[in-house]
Amino acid sequence: MIDIFHNVPEVESVFRLLLAAGLGAIVGIEREIVGKSAGLRTFSFVSLGACLFTIVSLLGINHLVPLSETADPTFRYNYDPTRIVSQIVVGIGFLGAGLIVFRGFRVEGLTTSAGLWVVAAIGTAIGFGMYLIGVVTAVLVVLIFFFLKRVEPEHWVVHNKPPDHHESL
């Protein structure tokens, strides 16, 4: 990014939030088109939220524990921003689990749940300033959502159905 943004972290943070929300929305378009319960807005919110948690974990320590010349020079912070990131993964796991539904012998929502999990990682990457990784991952997810389903031969897909009474005889 341009050097001016490093002097004002909030400006770069706003860029990161906008990019994360935009990438989440782009990824969520396919889910919206096919009528899944989590679509454009949900994917955008998950990416945005993961990005915000990441930014707060990176910048928040400066606001919570101000550094000053009078501070004890031997004092060390026990602060690790990856702790918040690990909680993002756990939180998205709970959200994703709520999307998985068993209907008879079918399981629905796994792809949407996995997509939310990856879009949280995209938001986290953007929050850390890893723009290329976030954008490339978003492109890969869109390609997977739009194209892999369409190239799967029908015989590759296993349709779970109750066993036929005559087959067991």
Automatic annotation (TrEMBL):
Keywords, comma-separated and alphabetical: Cell membrane, Membrane, Transmembrane, Transmembrane helix
Membrane spanning residue stretches: 13-30, 42-64, 84-102, 114-147
Residue ranges of every copy of the MgtC/SapB/SrpB/YhiD N-terminal domain listed in the record: 17-152
Compartmental location: Cell membrane
Cellular component, GO annotation: plasma membrane
InterPro entries tied to this protein: MgtC/SapB/SrpB/YhiD_fam, MgtC_SapB_SrpB_YhiD_N
Domain of life: Bacteria
Membrane topology term: Multi-pass membrane protein
UniProt family annotation: Belongs to the MgtC/SapB family.
Protein name as it appears in the record: MgtC/SapB/SrpB/YhiD N-terminal domain-containing protein
High-level lineage: Bacteria, Candidatus Terryibacteriota
